[in-house]
Write a structure and sequence with these properties.
The complex is a heterodimer of chains A (182) and B (323). Chain A is an alpha/beta fold and 182 residues long. Chain A is 26% helix and 32% strand. The chains are: A alpha/beta (182), B alpha/beta (323). β4 of chain A pairs antiparallel with β10 of chain B, so a sheet runs across the interface.
Chain lengths: 182, 323
Amino acid sequence: MRVVEKRQLLSAEEIGRTLSRLAHEIVENSGGAKDLALIGVRRRGVPLSERLAKQIRDFAKADVPVGTLDITLYRDDLSTIGQQPVVQSTQIDFPVDDRDLVIVDDVLYTGRTIRAAMNGLFDLGRPRRIRLCVLIDRGHRELPVEASFIGRTVQTSDTEIVEVRLQEIDGEERVVLVDRVP
Amino acid sequence: MLQRLSHLLGTEALTSEQIAFILDQAKPFQEFQRHPLKKLATLRGKTVAMAFFESSTRTRISFTTAAARLGADTMALQAESSSLKKGESLLDTVRTLEAMRPDGIVIRHASSGAPDFVARRLEIPVVNAGDGTHEHPTQALLDALTIRDRKGKLEGRNVTILGDILHSRVARSNIHLLSKFGVRITLCGPAMWVPRELERLAANLRVVHRVEEALDGADVVMVLRVQTERIHEPALAPDEYIAGYQLTPARLRLAQPDALVLHPGPIVRGLEIDSAVADGPQSGVLEQVTNGLAIRMALLYHLIGGAAADAPHPAKDRSNASD
C-alpha cells in the first residue's frame, strides 16, 4: 500500500485566514468570551486551540483558558493486535463545571474521537455546553456528531486521508488530500 | 522499538527503556487520581484474577482499585479461604482460575519463583505482586516514580536502603531497578541481614554496617519493615535494632537536607522508623501509596489493554487514522 498526494486543500495562508474566521465565529456565537474555554484534542487539536486562543486574545482582549485532552483511554477500538497507543497527559487546569467548552480538533471524520473526548470531559465535571470546532469536516460519520464551527467541508472517499500538517508538529503548514493505492 | 511486556515477573529482566516507559505511562494515571470521577471504561469487559496466596492488604487493595478504575472486574482468591487449605496444588488452583477466563492474573505467593512457574504454564499475562524473598516489582516501580518526581531523575542519585535486606523482596526489586539507572546504592543493617555477598547483586552498590556512614550524603533513604514473620528465630532484640538502626530525626540530618524518606509499609512506628520522620515533611510514604495506583493502572493497561486496530505509529500519527 502506497500513499500518494492528490491535491492541496489549504495553503498556510488559507489555514491562517480560516482560523481567524473560526476565532471570530466562536466569540460571536458565544455572546462574548465569558465562561468560554477551548479543549484541544491531542495531537493536532492542541496547536490549533492555542492559535485560536491567541486570536481571541488579540481581537477580543479576552483570555480564554486552553486545555489539552488525550483520548487514548476512551477509545472504543482497542483490540489485541497491532501497536498499543501511548497514553499522554490530559492537562485541563481549570474546573469544567458550568463552562462553555469548545472542543478543537483538526479533522472531523467518523465522530468517534469526539465521542471519546466528550466522555473524557464528563469525567472532569459537568460543562454547561460543549461545542465542536474543526479545521476540516470530511464526512463519513458513524455517530450522530456535528461540528458547530467548520473551517472547510471536503467531499472525500473512504480510502482517502486528509492530512493536516502544522508547523508546531510537522514542520510545515498545509492541508493535503492523500489516497491509498495498492 | 520498545519490547512490549507479556508479564511482569520482576525488575531484574526489564530493560531501562521498558522501566522508563512504564514510569512515563504512569504520569497520566497520576493526574487521573485527582479526577472527580475515577472510572474509565478502557478495560470494560476484562477480568483480572487476584490470586493472593499470602496475606496482603495494601497491595491487594491497590491492584483491585487500579483494575476497577480502568473499568475491569476482578475475581479474588484469598489464601485463608481458598482450597489451598484443603491441599490443592498451586498449579491446580491457578488452572481453575484460568478456566474462568480472566484476562490477566496478579499473584502473590510465599514461595520465590511461583509467578514465574505460573507464567510458563498460562496464556494470560501474569503480574508478580510479591513472591517470597525474590521480587516485588510494582513496589520498586512506584518507588522509582516517587524518587523521579521528588528528585527530578534517578541517574546519579544516592539511595540508602536500611533494614533487613536479605529477606526483603522490596529491596531486591529496587536494587535491580535502580542499578539500571546508575543510582549509587548503599545497603545498611545488622550484619546477619546485610551480608557482604549482597555487593555482588549490582555494580555501584556498597554494604555498610554503621547507619551514620550509610546516611551520609543520601538523597533518598528507603526504610524497610522489620519482617518478624519471615524470621524464624528472634535474631535481634527490638531494643538493639532501635539503638543501632532506627531512622530518627537526628540520624536523618546526616543525609542531604532535602533527602526523601520512603517506606513500603506497613510501618511499625517506633521500631524501624521514628514517627516524627514517618510523618515529617521529607516523608514520601503517602505519595508512594497514590503512585502505586498509577503504576498498577499503567501496567494493567499495558498488559491487558489491547492496541488500536488501526493505531498509527506514535511517532507519525495522522489525524484521520486516529479519528
